From TrEMBL:
It comes from Streptomyces parvus. Gene3D superfamilies: Cytochrome P450 (1.10.630.10). This is P450-derived glycosyltransferase activator. One of its GO terms (molecular function) is monooxygenase activity. The lineage of its organism: Bacteria, Bacillati, Actinomycetota, Actinomycetes, Kitasatosporales. InterPro entries: Cyt_P450_sf. Coiled coil: none annotated. Keywords: Transferase.
Length: 95
């Protein structure tokens, strides 16, 4: 109705298993062309730069070694009604 507030849960859209296989898995190889957060002209301009920077940062951190593996469940303690962001995700270096 007129004047009602609407909360858009963008994270929920980005985790739709109908459009993203295994949406909770971390993957640098995932093809996320339909990513809701980077939609529209600004997103199309910025998304490739953000992805390239993030990918290179992870590659630099692991330095040619195998990717780290989960060492437990993600800890979700973000105090926000609109995001279930991960506060901490324990990892262990792969052998």
């Amino acid at each position: 109705a007129a004047g009602d507030q609407v909360v858009v849960l963008v994270e929920g859209a980005n985790h739709d298993p109908a459009t993203t296989p295994d949406p909770r898995a971390f993957s640098l190889e995932r093809d996320d062309r339909a990513h809701v957060t980077f939609d529209g002209l600004p997103g199309r301009l910025v998304a490739p730069v953000v992805r390239a920077l993030a990918t290179e940062a992870v590659r630099a951190l692991i330095g040619g070694r195998p990717a780290p593996e989960p060492a437990g469940e993600p800890v979700r303690h973000m105090r926000s009604p609109v995001t279930g962001a991960v506060a901490r995700y324990p990892l262990v270096a792969a052998a």
